[in-house]
Specification:
The complex is a heterotetramer, with two copies of chain A and two copies of chain B. Chain A has eight helices and 14 strands. Chain A is α/β, with parallel strands linked by helices. Chain A has two domains: 173 residues, Rossmann fold (3-Layer(aba) Sandwich); 137 residues, Dihydroxyacetone kinase, domain 2 (Hypothetical Protein Tm841, Chain: A,domain 3), CATH 3.30.1180. A six-stranded mixed beta sheet of chain A has the order 1-2-5-3-6-7, with helices on both faces. The model of chain A has no long low-confidence stretch (mean pLDDT 95). Chain B has one domain: Serine Threonine Protein Phosphatase 5, Tetratricopeptide repeat, CATH 1.25.40.340. Chain B has eight helices and no strands. The longest helix of chain B is centred in the first third of the chain and has 29 residues. The chains are: A alpha/beta, B mainly alpha. Bound molecules: adenosine-5'-diphosphate (2 copies) and magnesium ion (MG) (4 copies).
């Protein structure tokens, strides 16, 4: 394992320390317990937005703290949900008197730890709503799984709910728009090479030189299928079709197309995937009216990408376009 | 042999040792069907528990603690695990210890109290995780352990017999998770590919219950199995 | 070799096609010959800015075309300088009547091909100035080398000269400020793992599991020294010290600190390097007043990072802060 | 045997074949001390040259081309290489052919004209690249080739003898770049580490000059070495 790290046990702390220095104009990074809040604290009268989860997905979530997006983020250990004692002060820090929306990716650990924190917060008279993000179509959403995972679609939920909150929507309305995004966003990913969790020192799975994993999550978990290496066009289709089918896209639909890198794939390759995905969508009569290409919801240095499609309407499009000023997303 | 608060301390300290020794094994199990952090998660948590107990030991040293409720120790374990482990297993083990602490208010546990402790722990895990037997989770180790403990107590076994029954059943049951297809937790994302691997949480449950028995066997001064608590 | 690509020979074309679709609001991508120009063509009366070089460094340079930065970019084949017949139309497209500044990284190929193109442009009465970027302190600048290479410092030259042009400075003034940046910017990089050029299919160099290359360029060239793997703190110091020494930084100096990823290293690791570099600079009595952390000047999927330091004064700081709206840099 | 425009065409077509055959070898040399694209660069360029010559051949077919200046072919090669190769070698080989074309205005080259062609090419490379002998570049193949060609012409050799001398000298000289430390081009960034590897541009120069000789030997219809042009 070769990484730009010191003691693997300090990976998250060292990285957050650098993040805090680089973005001191945007965030405060707290230690013991660890959480990140926007500079100058909660905005009075605005619904607060909090998200969190294991580390290793940078810039998610701390990179999205700032105007028009999150008010606080809670990074756990690498690929490990944060604990309630971290989440609770983040919820409190985000509260500007109008209540807080917790955006939780659907993983057993995230769900359980946020649940506990929300209970504790409510016991202290904080008004909290939770939204569960579960955009990964690789996982069947059935009685026989823990349900679909939350992956790159989380960015869209955070951006759009953040814009709604910034516009002054109340807690119920912000939660509603977040749920609307969840209902209209789907993702699927591929790994060309696994990632290595610092404290383990071993790749999260072993892939032969001519194999890829389709349907991976963002925690180095193996995917649903291991298939032979294929061309970018073929891989893109293997990701895009299930996403578009699950969304039941029809001609005339308008979407955001988000091609996300897993951390170790170069931007140039993401654009190859984007180009193909776009032509496939257009082939279905779907208009791509908004785009995002980059490594935003990552899995350490994993090589690979995911495709996220969000069905847009005027409301969602306007909220997507609304100004945002965070370390990782800005317009 | 009585199961008092000191036993509870020995139990969790031994668990910390067992987790340390098995850290890589647990992580490797989790790497196969999860995200490869279970050993590290529990290690971080039980090291914190030991640190908390050490700190508490300094506070109470010199005082008479003979009527200290067993549940007091279990509650420290619960809150510490909840705030340091994270992931799925943190809230699950945390809830297990919290529920167990609530039924362990007395300074000494008789066989039926031990059964009640284990039942409460299982109930905590199952309700928190909304998991049932057969879903390839730690419930698949806890449930057979509780069943075996109940039988041992009904058969008139003493505290040690009850704990031994639980530990042995959990150990076997963890092994028996291998062929299962996971339908809860992170391993469920793998679908059929989760079969053929032991569930890491079931294995750590077996370690935990094994440590409970060993702590009872060892007694306050080290005792039967020769290891100091 | 596993990459999200179709035919390796089409790597650049496929990627540019996706880029064109994703950023149709910002750029026009031309084929035959290949170059990228800003949407709606040159800005009347504004000095045009053109840069270019081999592909494989994305988002450099095409990702920096737009308001406040470049007017055109010329991507060559992977790691291969573009040809004069590509550069010439880019120079012409960038000309708004006030002349064009060509920003050239100091590589024999880039220099020779730009030289030819500039000669051809001048023959057609276009006014062109060229600025050579050579910020890489890993290479000794002596009679016995081709001189220092241009690496990540190029971003600072393009951003700051772009801001000067946007403010209406004339060609001589834009060239002057670009040269001032060149005079005050230094970089050095490390590779933890090599990259693989698509058409070659083999890693650009072979590194053992416990070795790293210090002083690498951005073309997969081996570096100056191969040393045993070390901690992030040690590696950071090995990069930062030569940069700071070469710049002869003194207490009281104010700088931009830019930690750049080589393409395959996760953002979290870049922040670890940033944190350490910042403390080292502060230890020298230097104030870090501006920061940038991310993978902007890459070497395909190479794992590693570079550190760039730019000595600032009020002028450079204000130009750095000026608005920019491109695919990869925006504020 | 005369060296006319047809010979020039055969020369560059043979170079294209030689580059295709040696593409991986050239790229591997460049991977050692450069950026691993020299084979691909020249392959792209000479394929384009062949395509241009094919297109031109259609245009002129049926016309009498016996008084076509040799330089016409060389100029096509020059502009095509300049606009398709990129990198350092594109402008360098492009300039070499451009300068060579300027001194090859006649339809037939005698031995001294061949020497002039080679001298002009070398002068083009050296002035464009500001490189001298000993800097581990293609100049280290061109210079000995020109020297050998001059000697062969002084010794009264015919066109073929001149080209043979150039080709053999370039081949040996390319090999002799191995111990050199590069002080020009990308390899110079490696400093001392550039020693121990052959310079890719020197090797491709040897291929180019080898093809010139083979094209002369082969004659219009294939000839001596049996390969069709
Ligand atoms: N819903 C659940 N109910 C009971 N146990 C569960 C549940 N989900 C996961 N587990 C247990 O948690 C273990 C994984 O713990 P750990 O690796 O620490 O957390 P994470 O899965 O968040 O990385 C699994 O092996 C399983 O035994
Ligand atoms: N300044 C120079 N003068 C002469 N030849 C040079 C010079 N710089 C580089 N070369 C030649 O160019 C070759 C490299 O060509 P190529 O790999 O195609 O371009 P690049 O170095 O831009 O990738 C070197 O092996 C060397 O022979
Ligand atoms: Mg985990
Ligand atoms: Mg786990
Ligand atoms: Mg090159
Ligand atoms: Mg090269």
């Amino acid at each position: 394992m070769k990484k730009l790290l010191n003691n693997p046990a300090d990976a998250v702390a060292d990285s957050l320390a650098g993040f805090a220095l680089a973005h001191a104009d945007l965030v405060d990074v707290h230690r013991d317990p660890v959480y990140v809040s926007r500079k100058d604290g909660a905005v009075n009268g605005k619904v607060g937005l909090v998200s969190g989860g294991g580390s290793g997905h940078e810039p998610l979530h701390a990179g999205f703290v700032g105007d028009g997006m999150l008010d606080a983020a809670v990074p756990g250990a690498v690929f490990t949900s944060p604990t309630p004692d971290q989440i609770l002060p983040a919820l409190q820090a985000a509260d500007g008197g109008a209540g807080v929306l917790a955006i939780v990716k659907n993983y057993t650990g995230d769900v359980l730890n946020f649940e506990t924190a929300v209970e504790l917060a409510e016991a202290e008279d904080l008004q909290v709503e939770s939204v569960l993000v579960n955009d990964d179509v690789a996982v069947e959403d059935s009685l026989y799984t823990a349900g679909r995972r939350g992956v790159a679609g989380t960015l869209a939920v955070e951006k759009i709910a953040g814009a709604a909150a910034a516009r002054g929507a109340d807690l119920a309305a912000v939660a509603d728009v977040a749920r609307k995004v969840v209902a209209n966003v789907r993702s699927m990913g591929v790994a060309l090479a696994a990632c290595t969790v610092p404290h383990s020192g071993r790749p999260s799975f072993d892939l032969a030189d001519d194999e890829i994993e389709i349907g991976i999550g963002i925690h180095g978990e193996p995917g649903r299928h291991r298939v032979p290496m294929a061309s970018a066009d073929e891989i893109t289709q293997a990701l895009l079709d299930p996403v578009a089918d699950d969304l039941t896209l029809v001609p005339g639909d308008r979407v955001l197309l988000f091609v996300n890198g897993m951390g170790g794939s170069p931007l140039s390759e993401l654009y190859v995937v984007y180009g193909r995905a776009r032509r496939l969508l257009e082939g279905r009569g779907v208009t791509v009216s908004r785009s995002l290409v980059g490594s935003y919801v990552t899995s350490l240095e994993m090589q690979g990408a995911s495709i996220t499609v969000l069905r847009l309407d005027d409301e969602l499009e306007a909220l997507w376009d609304a100004p945002v000023h965070t370390a990782a997303l800005r317009w | 042999m009585t199961l008092d608060a000191d036993w509870a301390e020995r139990w969790v300290r031994r668990t910390a040792e067992a987790v340390e020794a098995a850290k890589d094994e647990l992580t490797e199990l989790d790497r196969q069907i999860g995200d490869g952090d279970h050993g590290e998660n529990l290690h971080r948590g039980f090291q914190a528990v030991v640190a908390r107990l050490d700190a508490a030991a300094v506070e109470v040293s010199g005082l008479d603690t003979s009527d200290r409720p067993v549940g007091d120790v279990l509650k420290i374990v619960a809150t510490t695990l909840m705030s340091t482990v994270g992931g799925a297993s943190g809230p699950l083990y945390g809830t297990a210890f919290l529920r167990a602490s609530k039924v362990s208010g007395r300074p000494q546990l008789d066989p039926s109290s031990v059964v009640a402790l284990l039942e409460a722990a299982l109930e905590g895990v199952a309700s928190r995780g909304k998991a049932q037997v057969g879903e390839k989770t730690m419930v698949d180790a806890w449930q057979p352990a509780v069943d075996a403990a109940e039988r041992a107590a009904q058969d008139g076994g003493d505290e040690i017999a009850v704990l031994r029954a639980a530990a042995e059943a959990a150990d076997k049951a963890a092994h028996d998770t291998i062929p299962l297809v996971a339908t809860k937790g992170r391993a469920s994302y793998l679908g059929e590919r989760s079969a053929g691997h032991e569930d890491p949480g079931a294995r750590s449950t077996a370690l935990l219950l094994g440590a409970a028995m060993a702590a009872a066997l060892a007694g306050p001064d080290g005792g039967a199995d020769g290891a100091a608590a």
